[in-house]
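Quarterly update, task 2.4: pyridoxal-5'-phosphate-bound model.
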Amino acid sequence: MNNQDLINITKEFGSPVYIYDSERIISQYKRLINAFKPVRNLKINYAVKALSNLSILRLFNSLGAGLDTVSIQEVKLGLEAGVDPKKIIYTPNGVSLEEIEEVAEMGVQINIDNLSILEQFGSRHPGVPVCIRINPHVMAGGNTNISVGHIDSKFGISIHQIPHLMRIVENTGMNINGIHMHTGSDILDIEVFLYASEILFDTAKNFKDLEFIDFGSGFKVPYKEGDIETNIEELGEKLSARFNKFCKEYGRDLSLAFEPGKFLVSESGKFLVKVNVIKQTTSTVFAQVDSGFNHLIRPMLYGSRHEIHNISNPGGKERFYSVVGYICETDTFASNRRITEIKEGDILAFDNAGAYCFSMASNYNSRFRPPEVLWHEGKAHLIRQRETFEDLVHGQVPFQFETQKAKKMSK
Ligand SMILES: Cc1ncc(COP(=O)(O)O)c(C=O)c1O
């Protein structure tokens, strides 16, 4: 997909628009599989939350991946995409027992992350195999908003509560078939991750009927040239060896599971916007685009960096710009970024727009959510239409007020 292809996509589908390159998704998936080749049973469950378009789920299904889901709606999207319920794991946080029971009935693997629901679910359905999410209290992620393994985190069952957990398992007679952790996004240090894995192995020894150990995700991808990324190949080599050794000690071959989102789809995506206004103030040159944090919230939500390229003038002279949106609040995509000279009407391409971009988009300011396009085998395919005014009013039930005039007349 070159710059001209991207410009053509904006001509065909308008702007703003999301575009995903299937080849990049496939190559990331293969990279992960290759890194863990020494493990006999590897399960990659794509984290639906990152990008939940049905065509993307179908692509992962065609590759043989399973799905990691956090809501019953994500489970239903997976089923709609044709994924076998046995290949879906459901890892909710703080949802009702009723929702968990409904998902269990669909034949999906349940993962429970608190003792209260574990006890209630185990008492009512001792025959349903359950995975448990452990909190190893290791902070492997780089950003506090997306680090979930630390001591104050609301996620998982604390390793300090293992005795309590074991009492629940014994009293209910439930079957624990998996053990899970997810320490948070942006793993920078493999040794820290391996340390958390040791805690998981130690915990696993308590359960005699395990089928899999799920190491969650949090692989960091690069956002700019020279950026640190999780060294998947090194992690694969080290963790595979340690996992195989553990299986020997355990006496059985278990499956090793991961549930990456960002690693698989982040770099496949680009977000294309058009520059509406160039506004020169006394201190800054703003490039105001036809989008805002309603379509891509990550920079405003947790300071994420997305590289921005002016694909209408790639060879131009570089200048400093603040790229901002059209939302009625501070809405900054990038401050004082070096970008090739921008004119009104130019198309800007945001990198790393595959994960947590469209899936976090909203209708704030009553704007339509953009279309999504899949670039597959050299062609652009529309996989979600741009919303319309009908979508904005769909589901609303207008209340009929009596006018003041009608009120007076009825007196
Ligand atoms: C339980 C769980 N698994 C997997 C993921 C996917 O993480 P990432 O996109 O960093 O791979 C998340 C992200 O929030 C998560 O909470």
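Highlight for this quarter: DSSP finds 13 helices and 18 strands in the chain.
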